[in-house]
Design a protein that fits this description.
The chain has 160 residues and is mainly alpha-helical. 72% of the residues lie in helices and 0% in strands.
C-alpha cells in the first residue's frame, strides 16, 4: 500500500467533492422553509453525488490492490481520505486567516474554532461519505474474488 498515492488520490477526491459535486448540488433549487439545513434537497443531492464520486475514486485506487484485502484497503482509504479532508480544511483556514490579517495572534485566536468543526454533525456525514463508499467498493471487489469461477462445460466430441 502506497500512502503517498493514497493521500494524493484522497486530496483529488476532496477537491472534486468540494468543487464539482458542490457546484452540481447548487443547481438544485434551494428549499425556502428549511428548519434543518441538512434535510434539504441540495444537501441530499450533495451527499448522493459525493458518495458516487468517492466510490468511483475508491474504485480507481483499489483496482490495483490485492483483491483478498480489498475491504481492509477500502476502509483504510476512507479513513485516510477523511483525515486528508480535515487536514486540508485546517490548513486552508489557518492560512486564510494568516494571509488576510498577517497576524499570528489572529491565527491563535481562530484555532479554538476548529474544535466545534470536528464535533459538528456535518463532519460525521463527511466521515461516512468517505468510509462507506470506500468500504463498499472494497467489499464488492473482495467478494468478486471469492466468488467461484463459473463452471465451464466442455462439450465432449461426438461419437461416430
Amino acid at each position: 500500500m502506497k500512502f503517498e498515492r493514497m493521500i494524493l488520490i484522497a486530496f483529488l477526491g476532496n477537491y472534486l467533492v468540494n468543487n464539482v459535486v458542490a457546484g452540481l448540488a447548487s443547481l438544485v433549487p434551494p428549499t425556502a422553509d428549511a428548519t434543518n439545513p441538512m434535510l434539504t434537497a441540495q444537501y441530499f443531492t450533495f451527499a448522493i453525488l459525493g458518495a458516487i464520486a468517492l466510490g468511483l475514486i475508491a474504485w480507481w485506487y483499489l483496482m490495483r490492490t490485492r483483491k483478498d484485502t480489498a475491504l481492509t484497503q477500502g476502509v483504510i482509504f476512507g479513513v485516510v481520505g477523511f483525515l486528508t479532508t480535515v487536514a486540508t480544511a485546517f490548513i486552508t483556514g489557518v492560512s486564510g486567516v494568516l494571509l488576510q490579517t498577517g497576524s499570528l495572534a489572529q491565527v491563535a485566536a481562530v484555532l479554538p474554532n476548529f474544535g466545534p468543526y470536528i464535533v459538528n454533525a456535518t463532519t460525521l456525514v463527511l466521515l461516512g461519505l468517505w468510509i462507506v463508499p470506500s468500504a463498499l467498493v472494497g467489499w464488492i471487489l473482495q467478494m468478486r474474488m471469492k466468488s467461484p469461477a463459473p463452471a465451464q462445460h466442455q462439450n465432449p466430441s461426438p461419437m461416430i
